[in-house]
Write a structure and sequence with these properties.
Length: 207
């Protein structure tokens, strides 16, 4: 059965999943992804799911305690938030089915104080967005250069932090229009495409 944005709260709350703590996920009480674990319990939010998987199957490890998880998440969030005026208005058409589009557009218009179409044309978009994204991108660059042998943040060992970076770039790649976001991001530093290419095997869907 297909589920859409308006279904998240009633579906996940009915499963007994606790709501997100205040201030997380842009104030969303319930969010995606959520997962049913092998013991029958449910967990919501990517990092919470990763910790649960680490407990259930510690090998191969996701290396959540490698010192990079929080740093990478903060850097990616900084870059992502800055690029929202460019990326978010494209989400309804490129990623969502009709049943979710109206909900997404209405809730985001309320969040930003303007329709997404207007946000895309605002002074926050374009070069202003890229300027605001530079600090986050510089932090990602610095992290990826800490182990010059690469390609992962830990060098030769992949970790959850790598999946977080790759997931961000995959999201951007889907929303890209003629190379204006993904290709431009990849040109920021040679470590970015090197890292993304190394992570491609974990971006393949198995469904």
């Amino acid at each position: 059965m297909e589920r859409h944005y308006p279904d998240l709260k009633p579906t996940l709350s009915a499963l007994g999943i606790p709501p997100n703590p205040p201030g997380t996920n842009n104030g969303a009480v319930y969010s995606s992804p959520a997962a049913r674990l092998s013991d029958g319990t449910y967990v919501m939010d990517s990092l919470n799911i990763a910790h649960a998987l680490e407990r259930l199957q510690p090998e191969p490890s996701l290396h959540l305690d490698n010192g990079y998880t929080d740093r990478v998440q903060a850097a990616v969030l900084e870059a992502h938030v800055a690029l929202v005026p460019i990326n978010l208005p494209r989400v309804p058409v490129k990623l969502l089915r009709p049943a979710s589009r109206e909900y997404f557009e209405t809730t985001r218009a309320k969040r930003f104080g303007m329709p997404l179409e207007q946000l895309a044309k605002s002074e926050k978009a374009g070069e202003s967005a890229w300027k605001a994204a530079e600090p986050g991108m510089e932090k990602l660059k610095a992290i990826l250069h800490e182990h010059e042998e690469g390609p992962y943040v830990m060098g030769k060992t992949v970790s959850f932090a790598d999946f977080h970076i790759a997931g961000f770039w995959r999201f951007v790649q889907i929303l890209d229009e003629d190379g204006d976001v993904f290709d431009r991001g990849m040109r920021f530093d040679a470590s970015f495409p090197k890292h993304y290419d190394a992570c491609k095997e974990w971006l393949r869907r198995d469904d």
